[in-house]
Write a structure and sequence with these properties.
Elements (H helix, E strand, L loop, with lengths): L2 E6 L13 H19 L9 H9 L2 H13 L8 H16 L3 E11 L2 E12 L6 E7 L22 H18 L7 E7 L14 H8 L2 E2 L2 E2 L4 E6 L9 E3 H6 L1 H14 L7 E8 L2 H6 L5 E5 L18 H16 L4
Parallel strand pairs: 4-5, 4-8, 8-11, 9-10
Antiparallel strand pairs: 1-10, 2-3, 3-5, 6-7
Helix pairs in contact: 2-10, 3-5, 3-10, 4-5, 5-10, 8-10
């Protein structure tokens, strides 16, 4: 998972002003009168928000949780392992079931004297326009539980329920929903390999996103998007995503859009909450190399990070639903 480089808390003093309730009363009365007036004309008002609401309601936290569990059942998805290959096949299957066009991007990485074969996976679902939006997560697992409280466990790979499987699960469930609800923009789902292989100090992380950021044309298709959202560690039972410096610097419009979507659903308290952290993650190469403004939804306050205790029981369908529905609300309200 991403390493926290530093943190900073930002506060702003806000003064409260007296509120004049009269305009609100008038607006409320007018709002009530609109459907009555239309009804008198024997016409049915078209509700442009109905498809959005239906798509959001179609997202199932329970289905997403099952997708999370299935990934963990493969075992730790360390690059080059049998479990990694099984996860790739699983992701591909689910994307194809959602009628997505699937692309594979294979590459080799040599790190600390060992060569790894890695694969990024992409699923493209056509929208009403060819303008693209990127939704991404990493599917690999860290090969060492370096934060485990038991020193005997620190050379063992982590299960990666929250740190890896949660983001993938939410994306695959969103893809299932989009089979029935066409978004305004074409959606590129990206599943990165090699995010969590080694140490950030010697460049041993984010291999998949760095490779993609330098190679945006995959099997002849240009997958560069106008904007993106990265999901990482989004399954914690006690979920609250951090406000994040790179997201605010490079993709403030994406952050504000996600916050508006969360507010619309009553989920504001779960997203981009202080203190602001500066987090190195897959969104950094997407922002700085590929030029794709990408925001990171991540809950870094997770006590089981990089331990053998990162298991499905630490995650919840409710959290996956909160994240998935918020991303869908944002996605479905984008203009073509």
């Amino acid at each position: 998972m991403a390493r926290k480089r530093n943190s900073k808390v930002t506060t702003k003093d806000r003064k409260l002003k007296p509120i004049n309730f009269l305009p609100f009363v008038f607006a409320f009365v007018f709002f009530l009168s609109v459907p009555l007036w239309k009804g008198c004309n024997n016409s049915i008002a078209s509700n442009s928000n109905l498809p959005i609401k239906s798509a959001v309601e179609a997202f199932s936290g329970e289905k997403a949780f099952k997708l999370l569990v299935r990934q963990v059942e493969f075992g730790p998805r360390v690059p080059g392992s049998k479990a990694s290959q099984e996860a790739q096949n699983f992701i591909t299957q689910k994307l194809e079931e959602a009628n997505a066009k699937v692309f594979r991007q294979s590459f080799n990485v040599t790190y600390r004297g060992e060569t790894y074969q890695m694969t990024n996976l992409f699923g493209v679902i056509s929208g009403k326009s060819q303008n693209k939006v990127l939704l991404c997560a990493h599917y690999d697992c860290r090969p060492v539980a370096d934060q485990d409280p038991n020193p005997a466990n620190r050379n063992k790979p982590i299960p990666g329920a929250n740190d890896g499987a949660s983001g993938v699960a939410v994306l695959l469930e969103i893809a299932r929903v989009l089979k029935s609800f066409q978004p305004s923009k074409t959606v590129v789902f990206a599943f990165f390999d090699g995010e969590d292989l080694g140490s950030v100090e010697d460049g041993g992380m984010f291999f998949g996103s760095k490779y993609f950021a330098r190679n945006l044309i995959v099997n002849g298709a240009n997958l560069k998007a106008e904007m993106g959202v990265l999901l990482d560690m989004v399954g914690d039972r006690d979920f609250s995503s951090n406000d994040e410096w790179y997201s605010q610097r490079y993709a403030p419009h994406v952050v504000s859009g996600l916050i508006s979507a969360a507010e619309n659903l009553g989920y504001r308290r779960y997203f981009f909450q202080p203190p602001m952290l500066t987090i190195l993650d897959d969104h950094v190469p997407l922002n700085e190399i590929a030029g794709i403004p990408t925001a990171n939804i991540i809950d870094f306050d997770y006590p089981y990070w990089h331990t053998l205790q990162d298991t499905p029981d630490k995650c919840s369908p409710q959290t996956l639903a909160i994240v998935g529905k918020t991303v869908l609300q944002w996605l479905m309200t984008l203009k073509p």
